[in-house]
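Entries read chain and fold; for instance:
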Amino acid sequence: MTVTIGPDRLPPDDFELGLVASDIDGTLLLNWKPISTATIDAIHRCQDAGIPFVLVTGRPIRWLAPIAEQIPDLGRVVCLNGAVVYDIAAQSVVDAHTIDADTIGEITSAIRAAHPEAGFAYETLTAGFIDREFANRRSREARVIDDVTELRGQQVVKVLVRLGTSDSQAMHDLVDPLVEDTCHASFSEPDNGLVELAPAGITKAKTLEDLCDHLGVARSQVMAFGDMPNDIEMLSWAGHGVAMGNALGSVKKIAAAVTEEVDEDGVARYLNAVLDTHTHQTP
């Protein structure tokens, strides 16, 4: 691969790469297409150098199967915007932060009081549930419920909210003030009209930080890739945050660098350039 990343866009000379964290959709792949060979090769190059490559995604566990098929040797994945750490190789949950039934009732009541048209979806460790007001292109994979009381006994790790608009930023601005004391609100696509609610205090960054502590990797050694507002905390926390060329402006603004777009193998290009110029030392 011909690398076009200029030296002015690379980490400083004293940056010591200890771990790579990457979002999936819009970062490693686009529109549910397979991960490119170039990107898989870059991931394996990273792993061969003894540097963990950690996926940090909003996807639920049940949507990780295509990734596992392409890269079965990946270890722990931070999914559901930080609510769950899942081991792809072992196919097991390592850690989970849940939203209790009372909080779910408070969330839905508060949002519906302000927006009666609201529809909700709920991700658990094993399945997806939707109410009858919620419509989604993958709703066929979810079980329809008539009331949130049907979720009792389920380990809910993410709530998705839909209103009568496709503008996710506008939706976020409406929903966030209603739930900020009980959940963390974000969105992962600008025009799908979905706001994603994680357990209070949980973000991609917080769970990645906990994982790095477990692995003995310092914050200053982390390089992270992302493209959407639910990646902002992670890119800001990492020692070197890289936004994709297709990222929203708000994401590019806080990133230390911007690489090529996802369909130009931006992660692979940038990662290879860093591996070519920075010597890794085991922390």
